[in-house]
Write a structure and sequence with these properties.
The complex is a heterodimer. Chain A is rod-shaped. By secondary structure, chain A is of the alpha+beta class. Chain A has five helices and four strands, in the order βαβαααβαβ. The longest helix of chain A is centred in the middle third of the chain and has 27 residues, at 54-80. The two termini of chain A are 15 Å apart. The radius of gyration of chain B is 23 Å and the shape is globular. The longest helix of chain B has 34 residues, at 159-192. Chain B is 69% helix and 0% strand. Chain B has a single domain, classed as Formate dehydrogenase/DMSO reductase domain (Formate dehydrogenase/DMSO reductase fold).
Chain lengths: 173, 450
C-alpha cells in the first residue's frame, strides 16, 4: 500500500530525469508522477502510462456536432420552415455543409478541452501539487509514494541516479 | 546543454539561454514597470480606439446613412475592413496549428503573439458586420434560436449565415487554443508572483503544476486542436469568399475565390505578424527569442503566398478574357483602367512586385527593409479587398445606375478605430501575459546546439 509520505527527487535537465525514471522503473520503484517545465518525451513509457484516450472523445464530440448540425438544419429546411427558393429542393444538402462543418469543429474542440479539464481536475479552485519546487521553471521532479520503511533506500537510489536533492513531503490528497 | 553551435542548423534561440533564463526574460516584461515606448503606444492606440468608439456611437445613433454608400455600391469599406481583419487573423492560426503539425519548431517563439493577433483581428472583423446591421442590439437575430414569431429560422442556405457560424467558431476555437497554450506559462508566472497577483494567476492557471500525467493528455489535446484548427482556417476564408462567389455580380462570381482568398489571407496575416513582431522584439527586448531566422522564415512564406496571389490575379484576367462573357471582361478592364485603377495598380505593386525583393537573403534579414515591406503588403491587401468589392459593384449591368463611391469621415474614422482596438488589445497583452510560449521554447533550447 502506498504510504502517506512522498519522496521527491529533483533533476536539472530532461535527459537526466528521464534516465532516472527509467532506472527506477527497472529497479521496481513505482513512480507516482513526474513534474516538468515542458513535456519530456519518453516519459510516458518510463512511467508506464497508457496512451491518451482523448482522441476518441474528440471523435465522439465531432460526430455529435456533425449529426446535430445536419439533423437540425434538415429539420428546419424541410419540415419546420420550408422555403421555396426558385423551386430548389428543400433538402438540397450541399448548402448545409458549411454550417455542419463549423459545428463539427466547434463541438469537437470545446468538448475535448472540457473533457480534459474535468478528467485532470483542472479548475480555478485547484491547488497545484508540489508547488514551489521549480517544476514550472527549470526543475524536473520525480515523485514516489514508497511503502513505509522503504524511503531511505529510495532516497539513496535517486541520489545515485543524479538527483540534485531529494526531500520527503506529506502526500497531497 | 552543449554550448557549441551547429553548423547545419542555426539555434532557434540566441545567446545560449537556459530554462531559467527563458522564465526570467519572458516574465520580467509582465512583472517590471512598462517602458515609455509602451505608454506612448497605448496612448496612441487608445486615442484611435476612442475616436472609433465615438464614430460607432454616432452612426448607430444617426443611422448608417452617414456612410458614403449608395444604392449601387451597397458594400464598400465596411466589408473591405471585415475581410481585411479576418485575413490578418489567418496567419496566427497558420503559425500555431499548421506549422505545429509540420513540426516547424521555429514557430515556438512567435506562436503566442500570433495567436493573440488572431483573436484581436477577429474581434476587429466582427465589429463591421455588427455596426452594418444598423441596430446592433438585435445582432442575436443572426443565430437560430427558438422564438415566438411562428416557425421562423435563419436561412441556412445563405452564405452570410455560413459566415456567422464560420467567424464565431473561428473566434471560439482560436480563443480556446490560445488559453490552453497559456496554462503552463500562467503557472510559471504564478510561482514567481505574490499577493493578489498570485491569487489571480492561480485561478487563471487552473492549478497547473507540470504533472506529466497532465502533460501527456495536454499534448494530445493540443495536437487535436491543431488538427481541428487547420481545416478551420481554410474553411473560414473560403466561406468569406462565398459571400461574393455565390452572387451573380461580374468580378465576384468566380470559382477561384476560395483558394485565392485563403492565400491572400495568409499573405496579409504574415505581413501583420512581421509588423507586430518587429516592433515588439525591440520594444520589450526579445531579440534573442524572435531572431532574424524567424524573420527570414516568415519572409519566405510571404514570398510564396505573394506569388500565388499574383498567379490568381493573372488567372482572373485570363478567365475573364477566355470566358468570352462581355460583362465579365468589362468588370476586369474597368478594374485595370477604370476610375479605381490607382487602387488596382497599388495592389499589384504592393502584393506582387514588392515581395519579389525577398528573393534576396540580405533583404530578408534587414529589419528596416522587412518592416517597410510588411506595411506595404498590408496596404496592398487592403486595396485588394477594396478593388474586388467596390469596383465590381459600382458599374454593374445597368449603366444608368453606375455610381462612384467615396468614403465619409465616419468610415475612415471607424477603420482607424479598429486599428486602435487591435493595438490597444495587443499592448495590454504584451504587458500582462507571457508573450512567448515559455514551456514550448524551453523544449527547443537544445535545437542546433549539439
Amino acid at each position: 500500500m502506498a504510504g502517506t509520505k512522498l519522496v521527491v527527487g529533483r533533476w536539472d535537465g530532461p535527459d537526466t530525469v528521464l534516465a532516472a525514471a527509467r532506472a527506477a522503473r527497472a529497479a521496481g520503484y513505482s513512480c507516482r508522477d513526474a513534474y516538468t517545465p515542458f513535456p519530456v518525451h519518453g516519459m510516458d513509457a518510463a512511467l508506464g502510462l497508457e496512451p491518451s484516450w482523448l482522441g476518441k472523445a474528440c471523435l465522439g464530440f465531432a460526430l455529435a456536432g456533425l449529426t446535430g448540425a445536419l439533423g437540425f438544419q434538415f429539420w428546419v429546411s424541410v419540415f419546420d420552415w420550408p422555403m421555396n427558393v426558385g423551386g430548389k429542393s428543400f433538402s438540397a444538402s450541399p448548402a448545409l455543409i458549411p454550417v455542419a462543418f463549423e459545428l463539427t469543429v466547434l463541438c469537437a474542440g470545446l468538448g475535448t478541452v472540457a473533457t480534459f479539464l474535468v478528467f485532470r481536475g483542472l479548475s480555478p479552485a485547484r491547488r497545484p501539487e508540489l508547488e514551489g519546487l521549480g517544476a514550472t521553471d527549470d526543475r524536473f521532479l520525480l515523485a514516489f509514494a514508497p511503502e513505509a520503511g522503504a524511503e531511505a533506500g529510495l532516497k539513496a537510489f535517486l541520489l545515485e541516479h543524479g538527483a540534485r536533492d531529494v526531500r520527503e513531503l506529506e502526500a497531497p490528497r | 546543454m552543449s554550448a557549441t553551435a551547429c553548423k547545419l542548423r542555426e539555434p532557434l534561440v540566441d545567446g545560449h539561454k537556459s530554462c531559467r533564463d527563458v522564465s526570467e526574460d519572458v516574465c520580467r516584461i509582465a512583472e517590471g514597470s512598462p517602458t515609455r515606448l509602451w505608454y506612448a503606444g497605448l496612448a496612441a492606440s487608445s486615442t484611435a480606439l476612442a475616436v472609433g468608439a465615438f464614430l460607432v456611437f454616432h452612426q448607430v445613433w444617426t443611422g448608417i446613412g452617414v456612410w458614403g454608400l449608395n444604392k449601387t455600391v451597397g458594400w464598400s469599406w465596411d466589408i473591405t475592413n471585415f475581410v481585411f481583419w479576418v485575413g490578418i487573423g489567418h496567419a496566427g492560426t497558420l503559425i500555431s496549428a499548421i506549422l505545429f503539425l509540420f513540426r516547424q519548431k521555429w514557430r515556438t517563439s512567435i506562436n503566442r503573439s500570433a495567436e493573440a493577433m488572431t483573436i484581436f483581428a477577429v474581434m476587429c472583423a466582427g465589429v463591421f458586420p455588427l455596426i452594418h446591421m444598423g441596430r446592433p442590439w438585435l445582432a442575436y437575430w443572426v443565430m437560430p434560436y427558438p422564438n415566438p414569431m411562428g416557425p421562423l429560422w435563419v436561412n441556412f442556405r445563405s452564405p452570410l449565415l455560413w459566415d456567422v457560424f464560420a467567424i464565431s467558431t473561428y473566434f471560439a476555437i482560436s480563443a480556446v487554443f490560445w488559453y490552453f497554450g497559456l496554462l503552463p506559462d500562467l503557472a510559471t508566472m504564478r510561482e514567481r508572483a505574490s499577493g493578489v497577483r498570485r491569487r489571480v494567476l492561480a485561478a487563471a492557471s487552473l492549478g497547473w503544476d507540470g504533472s506529466h500525467r497532465t502533460w501527456q493528455h495536454y499534448e494530445t489535446v493540443y495536437l487535436l486542436l491543431a488538427g481541428l484548427a487547420t481545416p478551420l482556417v481554410f474553411s473560414v476564408h473560403t466561406i468569406v469568399s462565398f459571400d461574393f462567389a455565390t452572387s451573380v455580380i461580374p468580378g465576384w462570381h468566380t470559382t477561384i475565390f476560395p483558394p485565392y482568398f485563403v492565400c491572400g489571407a495568409i499573405f496579409s496575416g504574415f505581413a501583420m505578424v512581421l509588423t507586430l513582431m518587429l516592433i515588439a522584439r525591440k520594444a520589450v527586448r526579445l531579440e534573442a527569442y524572435i531572431t532574424l531566422r524567424h524573420v527570414d522564415a516568415m519572409c519566405k512564406v510571404i514570398l510564396l503566398t505573394s506569388m500565388i496571389v499574383g498567379l490568381a490575379y493573372g488567372t482572373e484576367l485570363f478567365t475573364a478574357w477566355y470566358s468570352g462573357n462581355p460583362y465579365e471582361q468589362f468588370a476586369f478592364l474597368n478594374r485595370i483602367r477604370g476610375p479605381y485603377k490607382a487602387y488596382y495598380w497599388t495592389m499589384v505593386f504592393c502584393n506582387v512586385v514588392v515581395p519579389q525583393l525577398f528573393w534576396s537573403a540580405r533583404v530578408r534579414r534587414s529589419v528596416p527593409a522587412v518592416f517597410t515591406m510588411s506595411l506595404l503588403v498590408n496596404v496592398g491587401m487592403w486595396m485588394e479587398r477594396f478593388v474586388i468589392i467596390t469596383t465590381s459593384l459600382h458599374r454593374d449591368y445597368l449603366p444608368s445606375s453606375w455610381r462612384m463611391y467615396h468614403p465619409t469621415f465616419v468610415e475612415v474614422g471607424t477603420f482607424v478605430g479598429s486599428f486602435g482596438l487591435f493595438f490597444t488589445l495587443f499592448f495590454l497583452f504584451c504587458r500582462f501575459l507571457p508573450m512567448v510560449a515559455m514551456s514550448e521554447v524551453k523544449g527547443v533550447l537544445d535545437h542546433g546546439r549539439h
